[in-house]
Amino acid sequence: MQIINLLHRGPLPYMSVDALQRYLHEKVASLHAPDTLIIWEAQDTYTAGRRTQVQDIPDTNVPVIAMDRGGSVTYHGPGQLVIYPIVKVRPPQDVVAFVRTTEQALIEAVQTWDINAKTVAGRSGVWIDAQYMPTGLESKLCAIGIKFAQETTMHGMALNVSTDLEQFMRVRPCGITDAGVTSLAQLGLQKSLAHTAELLIPYLSHSYQQFLARPEPEIHYHQAPDQLLEEAEHFLPPVPERTGVAWKPTVEHKEA
């Protein structure tokens, strides 16, 4: 499994890394690049998945980018660890199984830090039970939104490490009104993004091997991630219609 680690760049523009993931997605899908995890941190950005409803963005002054993933609206920003798995899967494709496996890998990883995480029926992501929350609300620690295209995954997960949780309050995160959002910091764990990535990467890589068309348990880091990012920005891969632009409530949203 190849790792492209961009954390040393600090918060990056969302669409710059989106270009990188699409650039790599084409290469992985055509078997011209190894299966990859992109590790990065975003500048302040709100993105809307295909299930976003008008009521999910009560503050119309919030700039929201429409993206070709499932789910509703969410926030990305400093202090949040974003991981995009770009991997070629063997048939049959099962996005639900892939998401469930991602959830379990993350849960097992954070358990080593004595974080009692769980899944919630009918809701994707990694959650913390209300009894462990200072707010008394069941809260999401990590959002997950994964898409399959050309038998290859894209988009991924966003785990709140030291994220400013108030930023989520400008929208209804994932369209959910009866739960909260949390971070490792709010749970009393002071970790860096780099340290968190070091913990999660082996768990994710190991868990994904069962899905891969080309299993590769060895983890290796790309030696020139900055150059790869520049290549992708120069190449400017095409994006689907109504993706990467301002979200409009008049757009019809259908979940694939």
TrEMBL record:
Q: Which residues form the BPL/LPL catalytic domain?
A: 31-212
Q: Does the keyword Magnesium apply?
A: no
Protein's UniProt keywords contain Transmembrane helix? no
Q: Where would you say this protein principally sits, based on its record? A: cytoplasm
Query: Residues at site: Lowers pKa of active site Cys?
Result: K140
GO MF annotation list: lipoyl(octanoyl) transferase activity
Q: What is its EC number?
A: 2.3.1.181
Cross-referenced InterPro entries: aa-tRNA-synth_II/BPL/LPL, BPL_LPL_catalytic, Octanoyltransferase, Octanoyltransferase_CS
List locations, semicolon-separated: Cytoplasm
Known pathway: Protein modification; protein lipoylation via endogenous pathway; protein N(6)-(lipoyl)lysine from octanoyl-[acyl-carrier-protein]: step 1/2
SUPFAM superfamilies annotated for this entry?
Class II aaRS and biotin synthetases (SSF55681)
Annotated catalysed reactions: octanoyl-[ACP] + L-lysyl-[protein] = N(6)-octanoyl-L-lysyl-[protein] + holo-[ACP] + H(+)
Report the Pfam families cross-referenced here: LplA-B_cat
Cited PANTHER family: LIPOYLTRANSFERASE 2, MITOCHONDRIAL-RELATED, OCTANOYLTRANSFERASE
**Miscellaneous notes:** In the reaction, the free carboxyl group of octanoic acid is attached via an amide linkage to the epsilon-amino group of a specific lysine residue of lipoyl domains of lipoate-dependent enzymes.
What family does the database annotate? Belongs to the LipB family.
UniProt-recorded name of the protein:
Octanoyltransferase
* Native source species: Arcanobacterium pinnipediorum
Gene that this sequence comes from = lipB
